[in-house]
Amino acid sequence: MSKRSMNENDPIQLVKDEVIVLEEDVGIETETQHHRFMRAALELAEEAHSVNEVPVGCVFIYNPTGKIIGKGRNRTNESLNGTRHAEFEAIDMILAQDGYKALAQDPSKNFWRDVTLYVTIEPCVMCASALRQLGIGQVYFGAGNDRFGGNGSVFQIHQDSNLPHSNYPSEGGYLRAPAILILRRFYVGENMHAPDPKKKKHRIVKKDL
């Protein structure tokens, strides 16, 4: 039995296992940076799952320092507000900090161009549009969003030159497996906020990707 199959129900262990695999394909420095931040986003997704929120998490990195300046997870059920996606939660956290708020409000600083987003699932159309309006520097995500994706899976919000504001680069596939498995655990389990016909009490989590 492989290491991965032994740990299929542990998303954080899956992240560690996937890092070992990916080190064969990318430089250690690059791998460490991307996967360290994506692990932080996955931990937030797991936190969301634990309180019955759609398990998506994200962190924003300020490139000049390499530090996390904002983090968020879905709070749509908790807040009774469908716009409270992980990205918006993290953006609000950044703007609540006086130093970063001042930088963000000064057009000459071009603050958001120095910021990178790591998010477990491809930003939806709403979030992709918000990131474009902010002028985000770079987006990395885990799994694609085949229903509402705004960064390539459904719409190309990040690189549609017909839209106002600047395009931004976006890459997916970073720790995709654990991001998908957390989502599967949520949707296969009983979602207490779903109508009765949508509850899935007797389904099992598919672990093949």
Named CATH architecture: 3-Layer(aba) Sandwich
Round the Cα radius of gyration to an integer and report it. Answer: 17 Å
Order of helices and strands: HHHEEHHHEHEEH
Give the strand content.
Answer: 5-15%
CATH topology: Cytidine Deaminase, domain 2
Strand order of the largest sheet: 2-1-3-4-5
The coarse overall form would be: globular
Under CATH at level 1, the class stands as: Alpha Beta
DSSP, total strands:
5
Indicate the low-confidence ranges by residue numbers: 1-28
Mean pLDDT over all positions: 84
Helix count? 8
Question: Considering DSSP H and I runs of 4 or more, what fraction of the residues is helical?
Answer: 40-55%
Structural commentary:
The protein has 209 residues and is α/β, with parallel strands linked by helices. The protein has helices at 3-6, 11-22, 28-50, 76-79, 86-95, 98-105, 125-134, 176-188; strands at 57-62, 67-73, 115-121, 138-143, 170-171. Helix 2 packs antiparallel against helix 3, helix 2 (11-22) runs antiparallel to helix 8 and helix 3 (28-50) runs parallel beside helix 8. The radius of gyration is 17 Å and the shape is globular. Helix content is 40%, strand content 13%.
